[in-house]
Amino acid sequence: MERTYLMVKPDGVQRNLIGDIVSRFEKKGFQLVGAKLMNVSKATAEEHYAEHKERPFFGELVDFITSGPVFAMVWQGENVIATARQMMGATNPKDALPGTIRGDFGVTVGKNIIHGSDSPESAQREIGIFFKEEELTEYSKSMNDWIY
Ligand code: DAT
Ligand code: MG
Description:
- The structure is a single chain.
- The chain has seven helices and four strands.
- By secondary structure, the protein is of the alpha+beta class.
- The protein has a four-stranded antiparallel β-sheet with strand order 2-3-1-4.
- 2'-deoxyadenosine-5'-diphosphate binds next to loops.
């Protein structure tokens, strides 16, 4: 089953949005595999956002993601990577539709509430950056019979 890395960014944690965000993915029918509230080190932030290191906003991005605790999560389900991206909404909240997380809660691109992996390769890479194998749980949920 496909897995993705999702992270409530420091603005989402400070704004008490962890519960709402977790609830959306739960209600959708995805399964939580691992989660933790954590501080991100500068080195981890730079590794996570390595693809953006030449972009002018890279420094701000690293400063922001290390500015307070994040809520790191791994979710599992059919097409969870692409579906979670749709549920997050466009990168810039001004373009994100109502009903999406960024559309409902965000205003500016620099504080857009949530991160989500954008491909199977980035999901595998990002899960590996933030979680040890033993922090992820394999369990069956009877509710899955009513989802699949
Ligand atoms: P996403 O988070 O939707 O995958 P991304 O990978 O292109 O978007 O960029 C990573 C983060 O960098 C994004 O969530 C917010 C920030 N960012 C992107 N474009 C930006 C810009 N033009 N100015 C400031 N921050 C930006
Ligand atoms: Mg991205």
